[in-house]
Write a structure and sequence with these properties.
The complex is a heterodimer of chains A (272) and B (278). With 272 residues, chain A is mostly helical. Chain A is built from eleven helices and eight strands. In chain A, a hairpin with a 2-residue loop joins β4 and β5. The chains are: A mainly alpha (272), B mainly alpha (278). The interface between A and B is large, with 67 and 71 residues.
């Protein structure tokens, strides 16, 4: 094969920043050692004061949104955090963490392993941004109309679940009961959570087709109502699900390797 | 299931419950270890290259040895031990806080799922050249192909596989051309088109083809799909990340680019008082 004539490699005159910049965290150096922080502030508030006066939920919201939440915002976030604390022992991300645990993987890797698998676009963090964008774009139109249009213009896949849009669909062929129940509970909290309420109506419009809220859709709606940007959605979802992944992974870590199933040879089918 | 039926159809999940179906192979205990119909211990070990097996496992097709050699050379091109490169930087940061080699390397590899560099842009690079070939065959000129692509980005020459950050030109392209020549690969239609596009954008925008564009065109000529190449190249940055990890790991902790407090430029809200809750 002959070679082509290409341009000579030359450095571009790109200006890279001299420093890392942040609007989130400020550290004031100690007088004696500039590498040691004498004090730290989050969005202007002293960390020591935040430790003294703030709940974890308030601090969490402040870190990402730049302001402390009001009571309804803190309550909504807390409820979602409780609901999402564990994707459950059947979720593939949890099972990845459990597999790592029972396989005697170093404990510090168990959570990253679970979180990485939780990044998937099916019932995972990879679905959240798209779900948030869908909700932000469509929640100005009547939910029933949006659902009707979607049902008219798309079709159920030949096999497996149908996620008609990110965050909404069927789970093992049915409506997933828990996120639907939780969405109704959250939507009935005092404040007027517009995206959540719209999502509940949208979900009801899909019920006859065995579809509704998925946990990812519910997370996306709450994040949208709380004003988080869609690109933050994936990581927030991972953060909120993290405790369950770790708990299940560590539960298996002290058990023998035989404590989890190893599919029998006769049930391992190599297809031609 | 009828869409309005009240009885969910769980056949798919029932069929797969407690059972694994594999098109790839597996370990039949006491009989052998199989991959895509090959007996790994007898057909592979000592007979084929590791890269051939990697490509087979990623794509389901056993490549000829020279193609695997070409892939191996491309992997060398796509990972160097410079910790200023983003994924390698992560490896070095892992080293400086004494994470394990596996963790740091995997963290760096994960970073190459990026819109900017590493394995993921190859998807778009291949989609571009394969689409360009299709519309070229429909009669569009190189100029029209480039203009149509630039129009998607406000007239700017953002074409996946051309130009690169930090530098103009790409030393890896001529290196890979030499490898292809040595392995006696002929120049296929995708590669020819990719170089015609390069000639045009070199003249118009003073930008050239990059390694992504070259790899995308070469492998399109070899019949690969974008997903095939993405899967094969999933750990393409591996060696550079491990190198940078090792360098930092073997030095004192926190010695890789340490930051003083005032090395971070804070641009947020001024110090303020916390009122009681809200």
């Amino acid at each position: 094969m002959s070679t082509n004539k290409h341009q000579q490699v030359k450095k571009r005159d790109e200006e890279f920043s001299q420093n890392i910049t942040t609007k989130i965290w400020e550290e004031t150096p100690d007088i004696k050692n500039p590498y040691i922080a004498g004090s730290s502030r989050c969005h202007g508030y002293e960390l020591t004061e935040l430790v003294e006066k703030c709940s974890y939920i308030e601090m969490f919201y402040l870190l990402f949104r730049g302001e402390l939440p009001n009571k309804p915002e803190a309550l909504l976030l807390e409820k979602l955090m409780v609901f999402l604390i564990n994707p459950g022992p059947r979720h593939p991300a949890t099972r990845a963490a459990m597999n790592a645990g029972v396989g005697k993987t170093d404990p510090e890797h168990i959570l990253p392993i679970g979180l990485t698998i939780l990044g998937g676009a099916h019932l995972g963090a990879g679905e959240i941004e798209a779900a948030m964008r869908f909700l932000r774009k469509h929640s100005r139109r009547p939910a029933t109309q949006v659902a009707d249009d979607l049902l008219k213009n798309s079709s159920r896949p030949d096999e497996g679940d149908w996620h008609i849009v990110p965050g909404f669909g069927s789970r093992y062929g049915s409506v997933d009961l828990m996120p639907n129940e939780m969405a109704n509970t959250l939507a009935s909290l005092d404040d007027d959570w517009k995206v959540l309420k719209w999502g509940c109506e949208f979900s009801r419009s899909l019920a006859a087709h065995q579809m509704g809220w998925l946990s990812t859709g519910l997370a996306a709606a709450v994040f949208a109502d709380l004003g988080f940007q869609p690109r933050f959605g994936a990581g927030l979802f991972q953060l909120l699900n993290a405790p369950g992944l770790l708990a299940h992974g560590m539960e298996q870590a002290n058990k023998p390797i035989t404590a989890m199933p190893f599919v029998k040879d006769e049930d391992y089918v190599i297809e031609e | 299931m009828s869409s309005k039926s009240n009885v969910p159809d769980t056949t798919l999940w029932d069929k797969n419950r407690n059972k694994i179906y594999s098109k790839k192979g597996g370990w039949l205990i006491g009989k052998g270890v199989y991959s895509h119909g090959y007996d790994m211990m007898n057909d592979f070990v000592g007979k084929v290259s590791y890269m051939q097996v990697m490509i087979l496992n990623a794509t389901g097709k056993m490549p000829e040895r020279r193609l695997a050699e070409w892939f191996e050379a491309a992997h060398i091109c796509l990972s160097w031990p410079d910790p200023r490169i983003w994924c390698n930087h992560i490896g070095a940061l892992g080293g400086t806080v004494k994470t394990s080699a596996v963790a740091a390397t995997i963290a760096g590899i994960l970073a190459n799922d990026s819109r900017s560099y590493g394995a993921k842009p190859i998807l778009e690079g291949m989609r571009f050249i394969q689409h360009a070939m299709k519309i070229s065959k429909q009669g569009l000129s190189v100029e029209e192909i480039v203009e149509a692509e630039c129009a998607k980005h406000g007239g700017k020459p953002y074409i996946m596989g051309y130009a690169r950050p930090i530098a103009k030109g790409d030393e890896r392209v001529p290196a890979m051309e030499r490898v292809a020549s040595h392995l006696e690969f002929s120049r296929g239609e995708h590669l020819k088109l990719s170089f015609e596009i390069e000639d045009y954008i070199l003249e118009k925008f003073s930008e050239g083809i990059n390694i992504n564009g070259y790899v995308a065109a070469f492998l399109s000529d070899q019949g690969f799909s974008p997903e095939d190449v993405y899967r094969t190249c999933s750990v393409v940055v591996n060696s550079g990340v491990t190198a940078c990890y090792a360098d930092a790991r073997d030095r004192p902790a926190d010695a890789f680019l340490p930051l003083r407090c005032d090395d971070i430029s804070y641009q947020g809200k001024a110090r303020r008082e916390l009122k009681t809750f809200m």
